[in-house]
Amino acid sequence: MSILRKRFYNNYLFIFTLIFIFVLFFCEYFIYYIVLSQCNWPSLDPHKAVSSVDTPKLDEHPVRAIFISDTHLLGPKRGHWFDKLRSCTYKLLTTIVGDIFDEGDWSNDKEFDNYISRFHSLFSVSNDIRLFTMAGNHDIGFHYAITPYSNQRFVNKMKAPSVQRISTNGNHFILINSMALEGDGCFLCKSTEIAINKVAEHLKCAKGIRNNCTKNDELSIYSRPILLQHFPLYRTSDEMCNELDEAPHEIKRLQFRERWECLSKEASEQLLDILNPRLVVDGHTHYGCRRIHRDDILEFTIPSFSWRNIDNPSFLLVSFLIYQIFC
């Protein structure tokens, strides 16, 4: 009788172990592929464009982009080993709009180098995919805490200056460091303001509304740019947001502080005046939101891509034509 009982327990333990391994494999690995298999690039049906100012050319090839925000890769201080084990992520992406690291602003040089190595390990891409990043407050600190050294360290390691313009297939992407838009004339804000105005001049030259343009100012074609930044444009709260991944009701009612949860009203208006973007993509709040500014400027706030921040991490797939956007 004892032998039969022992066999029963052994069989039970074996079955339990198999179930445990299967559940662990499914929840920590296989489920991501199931979810990703349901994601498709937006259809290029002109009637489904979220932004459109003209009819696309028949031979125009779309620029496809994946936007990710607030990955918050864990550091040595607040990270638990099991959280780090679960940080496996997808390898196809284009732009991470800030807060790549969770403790970048606290890290010493050795810890920051470890962050960089881990980032390139998790977010490695093939040669045909272009990867761009920009700083968030968790990467270099809020404006008051940024030093020339911490800023330059991020710029050098991530190849991410405070202002970048990337042009491809007639689409112009402008990446801006949100913490450099304080407007107080500091070492970071002054150079960022100059760089933004220079980009605006290039766009005006391409549009043919500026004189004294040089070859260095030339763009092959003009189209309204896509603005990418970490902080959302100015808004009082998330109450006007009605997305599937919106903030919980009790969080939506919380009032935003300018320069903390969003850009200042002044900086937001200046960006829209100077650049006149057709799309703005940002993050920072950890929840989704879609807004329209000035009747024809669409803003997407992307939810966090970290399980530690929200229970439904997501990203944004967009196809760009010169005069149309498909999400």
From TrEMBL:
The keyword Membrane applies. The keyword Hydrolase applies. GO terms for molecular function: hydrolase activity; metal ion binding. Residues 64-287 form the Calcineurin-like phosphoesterase domain. One of its GO terms (cellular component) is membrane. Pfam families: Metallophos. This is Metallophosphoesterase 1. It comes from Vespula maculifrons (Eastern yellow jacket). The lineage of its organism: Eukaryota, Metazoa, Ecdysozoa, Arthropoda, Hexapoda.
